[in-house]
Specification:
The protein is α+β, with helices and mostly antiparallel strands and 204 residues long. It contains 4 helices and 13 strands. The strands form 4 sheets. It has a 6-stranded antiparallel β-sheet with strand order 1-2-3-12-5-10. Strands 9-6-11 form a 3-stranded antiparallel β-sheet, with no helix packed on it. Strands 4-13 form a two-stranded antiparallel sheet. The longest helix has 22 residues. It is globular, with a radius of gyration of 22 Å.
Length: 204
């Protein structure tokens, strides 16, 4: 497309409004970012009793931070317990901050034509890890974390790319809930101390 044709395309009433909206958004970004947090303090990071487990959100799109592409949370797995089991299209990076245990991963065959279809492979793989390790979870892999220590908790830091969601690929399926999951419980620091100490076991 020639330069003159490009300008003519923008002069159309609907197209011109769309283009101007892009310009306005770019111009407003510095002011918008000035209202967003660069530093997030611990008390601003919400706890969640999630189907995947006991989570403390470090970064997400609802926390008014300047980070626009990454979601991150810390997960606590009580002594001898495990996370939920789930599968999502986005790849995931997990840093083992404390504790030891193992993951089970099940790769899926994926086909994207006029439909999106996936099928778990028969093989289930086990991977041992300990504090200081990084766990890589490939796209579309069924996975679950296990704490192999009956006396000490595990702490994991998980990071995923938010862009998958923006592209309409927020494919998240929960296959098994964490043993501690109780939708009626609201987590707070004092309650978390009891979970970490192993004083609260699986829900009934």
């Amino acid at each position: 497309m020639a330069w003159g044709e490009s300008k003519a395309w923008r002069r159309g009433s609907a197209n011109e409004k769309l283009y101007q909206a892009l310009l306005d958004d770019a111009a407003a970004k510095p002011q918008r970012d000035a209202q967003r947090k660069k530093i997030i303090h611990p008390e601003e990071m919400p706890w969640e009793m999630a189907r995947q487990g006991l989570l403390k959100h470090l970064l997400n799109e609802h926390m008014n931070t300047r980070m626009e592409t990454v979601d991150a949370y810390m997960q606590i797995i009580p002594p001898g317990s495990r996370s939920g089991k789930h599968r999502h299209l986005a790849e995931e990076c997990v840093y083992v901050l404390e504790g030891k245990g193992y993951d089970v991963h099940q790769d899926c065959d994926l086909e994207v034509t006029h439909r999106y279809e996936w099928k778990p492979q028969a093989e289930v793989k086990r991977y041992e890890w300990e504090a200081g390790d990084v766990i890589y979870i490939p796209p579309n892999t069924i996975h679950q974390h296990f704490n192999s220590d009956a006396k000490r908790p595990v702490r994991l830091i998980s990071a995923t790319n938010r862009v998958y969601k923006y592209c309409g690929l927020n494919d998240l399926e929960q296959l098994e809930n964490a043993p501690e999951y109780d939708p009626g419980v609201v987590l707070n620091p004092e309650l978390m101390k009891r979970y970490i100490a192993g004083k609260i076991k699986e829900t009934a």
